[in-house]
Inverse folding.
């Protein structure tokens, strides 16, 4: 990962343009997720995270008050550079700081190995979400 990449807690209001640009690029444009499924009321109460390369936002994720992690996305040119790992580490650390001992997420099936490396285990069968195969995964903090 380039040494310029950092992850910070973002503001849904202040960083809205960057959060939307990344999620629209990854989920709506690349993966054909319908916009009405991408944007939901939970964005307002979630803790959002931005990965930035210098001052350019390249990845995002969100943490819900119940410990659900979602909308993990990294722009194509930065994939494979450990940006997703840095994002997830920041989200897990924040969840633990808030006393959320259990973190859950719905993973796209092709990404399960990535999440397993971070301590998540598959806890459901496969299901379709926005037409994409997913599984539920869970991680319990020590």
């Amino acid at each position: 990962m380039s040494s310029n990449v950092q992850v910070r807690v973002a503001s849904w209001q202040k960083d809205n343009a960057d959060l939307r640009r990344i999620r629209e690029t990854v989920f709506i444009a690349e993966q054909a997720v319908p916009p009405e499924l991408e944007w939901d009321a939970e964005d307002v109460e979630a803790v959002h995270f931005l990965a930035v390369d210098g001052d350019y936002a390249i990845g995002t994720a969100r943490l819900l008050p119940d410990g659900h992690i979602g909308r993990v996305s990294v722009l194509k040119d930065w994939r494979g550079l450990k940006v997703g790992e840095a994002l997830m580490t920041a989200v897990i650390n924040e969840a633990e700081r808030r006393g959320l001992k259990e973190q859950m997420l719905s993973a796209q099936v092709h990404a399960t190995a990535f999440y397993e490396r971070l301590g998540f285990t598959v806890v459901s069968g496969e299901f379709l979400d926005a037409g994409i195969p997913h599984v539920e995964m869970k991680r319990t903090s020590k």
Remarks:
- The longest strand covers residues 132-140.
- The mean pLDDT is 95.
